[in-house]
## 1
Amino acid sequence: MDKQQAQQLQIAALPPEIESEHFFEGVEKLLEVWFDERATGDLRNITRNQWENLLRHVKCEIISFTQNEHIDAFLLSESSMFVSRRRWILKTCGTTTPLKCLEQLLKLAQVEGYTVITDIFYSRKNFTRPEVQNSPHKGFYEEVTYLDSIFPEGRSYCLGSINQECWYLYTFSQPEKEGEEEEEDEVKPNQKLQQLQLQQPADFGDPDQTIEILMQQLDNDVMALFTKDKFATGQEVTQSSGIDLLLPQMHIDDFLFDPCGYSMNGINDKGEYMTIHITPEEKFSYVSFESNVALDNYTRLISQVIKTFKPGKFIVTIFANKSSLAYETMKELEIEYSTLSNWQRTDMQCCNFPSYNLLFAQYSRGKSS
Ligand SMILES: C[S@+](CC[C@H](N)C(=O)[O-])C[C@H]1O[C@@H](n2cnc3c(N)ncnc32)[C@H](O)[C@@H]1O
């Protein structure tokens, strides 16, 4: 399906939650899977037809595609999918069922020689209307039970307030099997270090980091841009809203839904990505920004995103592995947004996982803003 066909499909088959109740769940389910770097396969060998079949389990379709030498970026009818040599990211909103495609993913990856998953992250904010979701996404407990049946050693967390706004995470990291390697290869410590360095992933290298900004209660005038009343194409909105200025090196693929709604993927020459999805309806407005761009300071980017969309409240999450420069951002967020601005930080938590550190922070507008 191309962009033109997608426009026609929207008229023919709006999701039931839009048609009957004028509600759309913008909050996405985000799934990121990393496979063992020692395997020589490439997930980008998986064909478009195979991805389309996999996405049938999720209940969404491909509407556009871009790529460069590092990464394939798919724009979906409900958000995005990014495929690199050994990393797969699926972000879907509405009433989609991304966990249902995991078994299919593992089969396709196995054909590429990937039999070991090194890291998995499944995360999402609390839904606005959990009761309209389909199994296994009717609640976090159901999602965890489903994931546990595939990854018995996974761990689940809830950050933020469980009776108000919160963010759920399920994660699993494969422990390094140092003993096994020594037995097999009988290498001395310094030889072993050299070998491990050679095994660093060649396409992305270390470090790795991901920032997400999840915004709600957005400014009506800004949201009015993301409608067919104002613009005909995604490209026009990307420029008028200032989205093209957020990370200027990104090659952008955008889509404006009819009558409203917007999605974009951006990829740059380093293989980094950004993705923005917008549900502009006033009663349940929602915007998500996500990127793995490597910065030593995310404060300016966060400020620019906030100024562009003008939310009433937002959540920031930053994953950074141990060698990532993003670690420093934790301190900056505390100063910049709590004491020097009109934003009130309502929650902040930091977690240390085996290979990643995580920052979660939640903000709402102070009384004077
Ligand atoms: C797919 S987009 C972006 C969703 C994203 N997760 C977000 O951040 O809100 C959803 C927006 O597009 C609108 N929309 C219009 N036609 C649609 C369709 N056929 N499928 C999904 N969304 C559609 C929805 O009402 C909503 O405003």
Note: Residues 3-205 form a domain with the S-adenosylmethionine decarboxylase fold (CATH 3.60.90.10).
## 2
Amino acid sequence: MFILNKNNSIANQFLSELRDIKVHKDRLRFRKNLERLGEILAYEVSKSLDYKESEIETPLQKTKVNTLKTQPILISVLRAAVPFYQGFSNIFDHSDSGFIGAYRVEESGNEEINISLQYQATPDLTDKEVILIDPMLATGKSFVKSVENLLKNGRPKKIHIAAVIAAPEGINYIKNNLDLPFSIWICALDEKLNSASYIVPGLGDAGDLAYGSKL
Ligand SMILES: O=P(O)(O)OC[C@H]1O[C@H](OP(=O)(O)OP(=O)(O)O)[C@H](O)[C@@H]1O
Ligand SMILES: O=c1cc[nH]c(=O)[nH]1
Ligand SMILES: [Mg+2]
């Protein structure tokens, strides 16, 4: 598992601004920070992909370069993933993308989180490296349900789970429930979930901070 904030970098300032109640109500900045972390995490994921050598011509002479062997497929889990996904898409600019509409059904009086998944549009995923992008990995149910549904569109060679903040409970849920090759890329591993299955310390509701509350 790759955890970005284990090392000092400017990414930790972006993460701090996402969490800080004095800053994170500025929606434009909140979305921009998600996008910036998406770009940084995409760069880290890019180091794990396969490259091929080829020859190009500069105005001065021929030279050998290493470029991606195949483009990963990017999948955005609507709605909160949109700005974070944009960061990935800025880096993997030749990639095809897919979209999944998923949200947690939080019923009062019921601590169990269920996921409603109502929309999926993706290319053929057979034997592809897929980057599944969602900023919050809380119970892990949205990621696991998304992967289960993605399999209808082909079995990927590998899935890269990409999130900004994860809870240990969600990481364990993913490890116990995914039966295809995967790796996890996160910016921070937080302490735990609270009784409403929100990540603590976390940042609150990522979708609401980016776009406002939904009915
Ligand atoms: O790990 P989990 O417990 O499944 O929680 C994580 C999910 O919660 C958030 O979405 P939310 O359901 O709030 O939908 P939204 O994107 O519409 O805000 C987040 O973007 C994940 O999809
Ligand atoms: O802490 C959490 C958990 C799920 N979704 C969020 O946006 N935040
Ligand atoms: Mg939400």
Note: The helical segments are 11-19, 27-46, 81-91, 141-150, 168-177, 206-211.
